[in-house]
C-alpha cells in the first residue's frame, strides 16, 4: 500500500481496563458495543498466547464502561480461537441485554455434535442452549446461521475449533453446509449444502477438492445472505485455496454467483514445501477473495480479483453484476473493512503487518473525497503465527465516533478504543 497517499490523522488511543488479564474480541464484522454504548463485549484469558486445546477455557463477558471499565464475567467457553473468539455478539433485535456465543456440548443433538450456541441474558444470568454453533446473527435477532467448525479445523485451522479426535470429514456432503437456526424455538434446517454448491456453476478444480464455507454475513434488513465457498486439494497451503462469493436468501433459495477466483495452482507440485509459505502470503494473494461485508441491503464490499485486477470492490447483488473499484491506487492491500454504521462516506480498515517493520496500520477511507486517513500504526510480534496472530479487526461504536481494535503492541493482548470524532464529526 502506498502510504505516501495517506493523511496522517493519528487519533487518541487508549487501552480498555487494567485487571492484569488479557482480553480480545475477535472479528471485525460486528460491533462489541451494546446499543447504548455502555458495555463492551470481550473474552478474557490469563495469557497473551497459548496452544489451543479442547479444554482451554476463555471467560465470556463485557467491560462495564459506566463502572470504571470493570470486566463482568457471564460465562466461560472452551469453544473459541484467537482469530474469531467464540463468535460472541449482541442480540440487537431483542428487548433487554442478550448476547450469544458458541460453547461445547455433550449432547449428540444438532447437525454438529459437540458444538452448540448459548444465549445469555447478561442482566439475569439466564442461559438458553441451542443445538447449532453460530457464525452470524441476523440484525432482527430472529435467526442465526452456522457452519461446521470441525470441517474448518481441518481446512482452515485458524478459524476452526480444536478437537483431540476430529471426525473424518468427506470432501463433499449433502448434510453439511450452512444451517439456519431459529433463535426463539431452537429449530434448525440445512439452508444450502456443500454438495449443492459444488453443482452450482461447477468448475473442474472442485472435483478432487475438499470444500467448506466461511465469512457468512446477513444484510441489514435480514433478507439476504453472503458467504464464501472455498475449496482446495492442499489444505496445508492457503495460497492454494480457491474462492467464490455467493449470495442467497436465508432459506438457501435464489443463489447468485458474484465472483469466482478459480485459477491454475502450480503449488500443487509434489515437491512443494508448505513451510516456505509466509504467515501472511495468503492474505496478500492476488487471487484472494476475502472479508466480504454488506454495505447496505444491495451492495457488498470485498477484497477480490475482478477483470484481472485485485482491489477493494463494491458488488451489487443483482443479476446484472455491477462491480466498482473502491480506492483505486490508494487501498492496495487486503484488510478488514467496514462502513460506518451512520454514514457510508467512511470506510474503516486495517493492513497486515509490513514485512520489514512488523507494523500494521489502522486506516479510515473517505469515500466522497478519495482520501485515506492513517489513524495509527501498531507493532505485532513476528513470532505470532497464523493460529495465534492478533489482527486489529477494527469495529465501530454504534454512533460512528469511536473504534475498537484488538492489539498486541504493548506485549499484551488487549482491546483499545480510538476516537475518530475529530475526523467524521
Automatic annotation (TrEMBL):
Protein name per its UniProtKB record: Oligogalacturonate lyase domain-containing protein
Organism name: Advenella kashmirensis W13003
InterPro entries (alphabetical): WD40/YVTN_repeat-like_dom_sf
Amino acid at each position: 500500500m502506498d502510504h505516501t497517499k495517506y493523511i496522517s490523522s493519528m487519533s487518541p488511543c487508549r487501552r480498555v481496563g487494567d485487571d492484569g488479564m488479557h482480553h480480545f474480541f475477535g472479528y471485525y464484522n460486528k460491533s462489541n458495543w451494546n446499543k447504548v454504548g455502555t458495555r463492551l463485549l470481550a473474552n478474557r484469558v490469563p495469557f497473551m498466547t497459548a496452544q489451543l486445546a479442547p479444554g482451554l477455557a476463555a471467560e465470556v463477558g463485557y467491560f462495564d464502561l459506566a463502572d470504571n471499565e470493570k470486566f463482568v464475567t457471564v460465562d466461560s467457553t472452551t469453544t473459541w480461537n484467537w482469530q474469531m473468539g467464540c463468535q460472541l455478539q449482541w442480540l440487537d433485535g431483542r428487548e433487554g441485554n442478550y448476547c450469544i456465543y458458541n460453547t461445547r456440548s455433550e449432547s449428540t443433538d444438532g447437525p454438529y455434535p459437540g458444538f452448540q450456541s448459548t444465549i445469555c441474558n447478561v442482566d439475569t444470568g439466564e442461559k438458553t442452549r441451542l443445538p447449532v454453533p453460530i457464525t452470524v446473527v441476523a440484525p432482527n435477532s430472529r435467526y442465526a446461521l452456522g457452519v461446521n467448525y470441525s470441517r474448518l479445523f481441518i481446512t482452515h485451522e485458524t478459524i476452526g475449533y480444536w478437537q483431540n479426535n476430529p471426525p473424518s470429514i468427506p470432501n463433499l456432503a449433502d448434510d453439511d453446509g450452512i444451517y439456519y437456526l431459529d433463535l426463539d424455538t431452537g429449530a434448525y434446517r440445512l439452508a444450502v449444502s456443500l454438495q449443492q454448491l459444488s453443482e452450482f456453476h461447477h468448475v473442474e478444480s472442485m472435483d478432487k477438492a475438499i470444500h467448506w464455507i466461511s465469512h457468512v454475513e446477513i444484510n441489514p434488513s435480514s433478507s439476504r445472505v453472503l458467504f464464501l465457498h472455498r475449496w482446495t486439494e492442499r489444505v496445508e497451503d492457503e495460497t492454494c485455496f480457491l474462492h467464490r462469493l455467493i449470495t442467497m436468501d436465508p432459506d438457501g433459495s435464489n443463489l447468485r454467483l458474484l465472483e469466482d477466483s478459480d485459477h491454475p495452482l502450480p503449488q500443487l507440485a509434489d515437491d512443494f514445501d508448505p513451510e516456505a509459505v509466509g504467515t501472511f502470503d495468503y492474505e496478500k494473494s492476488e487471487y484472494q477473495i476475502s472479508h466480504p461485508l454488506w454495505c447496505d441491503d444491495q451492495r457488498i464490499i470485498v477484497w477480490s480479483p475482478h477483470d484481472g485486477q485485485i482491489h477493494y470492490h463494491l458488488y451489487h447483488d443483482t443479476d446484472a453484476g455491477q462491480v466498482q473499484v473502491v480506492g483505486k491506487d490508494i487501498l492496495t492491500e487486503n484488510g478488514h473493512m467496514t462502513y460506518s454504521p451512520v454514514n457510508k462516506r467512511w470506510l474503516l480498515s486495517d493492513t497486515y503487518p509490513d514485512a520489514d517493520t512488523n507494523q500494521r496500520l489502522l486506516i479510515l477511507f473517505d469515500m466522497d473525497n478519495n482520501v485515506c486517513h492513517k489513524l495509527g500504526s501498531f507493532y505485532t510480534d513476528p513470532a505470532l503465527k497464523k493460529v495465534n496472530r492478533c489482527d486489529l479487526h477494527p469495529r465501530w461504536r454504534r454512533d460512528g465516533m469511536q473504534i475498537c481494535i484488538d492489539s498486541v503492541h504493548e506485549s499484551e493482548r488487549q482491546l483499545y478504543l480510538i476516537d475518530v470524532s475529530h475526523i467524521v464529526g
